Amino acid sequence: MQATRTSLPRPNARCKRIRASVKCSAQSPDAPSWSERLKRAGRSGVLAYGALNAAYYATAFAIAAHASTQSRATSVQASLGNATKLLAVVWAGSQATKPLRAAIAVGLAPVCASWLRAVQRATGVKTEAKAFAILVAIIAFVGLSIMAICAITLC
């Protein structure tokens, strides 16, 4: 008696039936990367990722600066060493959380698209590019202000 083979659906075929925005498995070569999904989201995806970056860096810098003030370095050289370590820790954390921030940014892209439309209506600018520039300036100002306040008060 000869055994009959039944063909099971290949993982890639199964993934194609699932929504294109959801990644089926790590082995699927068809699934877009998070960076590809951010590119598809356009300006709103970039805005979401930038807002998350600003929030991460402001928070991480504040926490790291607070932790570094506990050492109470007495010399300039020791202070510079602490600052270098602080920046290295913040950067390493940034690299470790990059995929998570990209995934969240893809989900927040529709929210940022509504922000872009709201800024266009409120300011009367005609193009989305100008509304994008306004929001980027606001996000950068807030993020840098938080970091500056932490640097002034904690260091």
Radius of gyration: 23 Å
DSSP helix count? 5
Looking at the chains present, what oligomeric state does this protein adopt? single chain
State the helical fraction.
Answer: over 70%
Which whole number gives the mean pLDDT? Answer: 77
DSSP strand content: under 5%
Largest β sheet strand count, sense and barrel closure: none
Number of strands: 0
Taken together, the total number of domains comes to: 1
Give an overview in words.
The protein has 155 residues and is mostly helical. It has one domain (34-154). Helix 2 (34-41) packs across helix 3 (43-69) and helix 2 packs parallel to helix 4 (76-123). It has helices at 11-17, 34-41, 43-69, 76-123, 128-154. Helix content is 75%, strand content 0%. It is flat, with a radius of gyration of 23 Å. The longest helix has 48 residues, at 76-123. The N and C termini lie far apart (81 Å).
Topology:
Blueprint: H1 11-17, H2 34-41, H3 43-69, H4 76-123, H5 128-154
Helix pairs in contact: 2-3, 2-4, 3-4, 3-5, 4-5
